[in-house]
Backbone:
């Protein structure tokens, strides 16, 4: 942990994948269904997508298919997003233990936001599947804004006149984007990635919840 004034924090901005839930197996199903739709014999495995969590879809596609894909990204990615909108509301993901309960408690003390590099409907589907929509002030995606996370963080800060928001994510990329926005970063060490020198690090969502609830009692 660190010496930042945690009592001044007024908003928690959460990443989705690796921070709130694990939906990688479901994403694999969507990617594979999309390849089948184009007649391509390609099976995307969990380990492949895990390495790409937190990246925009076009970057993930390049990482998976290489420099000479059988299907142009301009053809594949719109179809992928369409299939994701059809399939993910039913497939969903596995929320981390005590995530919903924690979000309910945290929302009593902080404004809660979601910010992810997912497609347009990704956060909406996750909120509905897990039941956390009532606790969230706004959810912002790269798919809707086409902006970097750092830009979306600053946009939220300005729109809601936040004084000291923090971002909570599970990758070094999340940390880097948070630093670019000039905000403190909390690392979800239970997630998919790694991070050097975060402002906070938590081994479970329950630990994260307890810490920030206690901060308001000091």
Residues:
């Amino acid at each position: 942990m660190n010496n930042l004034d945690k009592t001044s924090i007024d908003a928690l901005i959460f990443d989705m994948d690796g921070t709130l839930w694990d939906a990688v197996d479901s994403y694999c199903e969507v990617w594979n269904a999309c390849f089948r739709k184009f007649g391509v014999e390609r099976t995307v495995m969990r380990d492949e997508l895990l390495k790409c969590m937190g990246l925009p879809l076009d970057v993930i596609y390049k990482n998976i298919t290489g420099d000479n894909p059988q299907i142009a990204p301009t053809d594949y990615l719109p179809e992928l997003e369409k299939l994701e909108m059809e399939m993910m509301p039913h497939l969903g993901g596995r929320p981390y233990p005590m995530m919903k309960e924690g979000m309910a408690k945290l929302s009593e003390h902080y404004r809660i936001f979601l910010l992810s590099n997912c497609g347009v409907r990704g956060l909406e589907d996750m909120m509905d599947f897990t039941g956390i929509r009532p606790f969230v002030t706004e959810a912002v995606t790269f798919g809707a804004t086409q902006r970097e996370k750092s830009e979306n963080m600053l946009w939220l800060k300005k729109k809601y006149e936040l004084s000291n928001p923090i971002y909570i994510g599970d990758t070094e990329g999340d940390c880097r984007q948070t630093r670019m926005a000039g905000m403190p970063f909390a690392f979800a060490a239970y997630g998919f990635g790694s991070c050097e020198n975060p402002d906070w690090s938590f081994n479970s969502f329950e630990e994260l919840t307890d810490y920030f609830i206690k901060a308001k009692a000091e």
Observations:
- Residues 73-91 form the longest helix (19 residues).
- The chain has a mean pLDDT of 95.
- The chain has two domains: 6-22+94-217, 24-91.
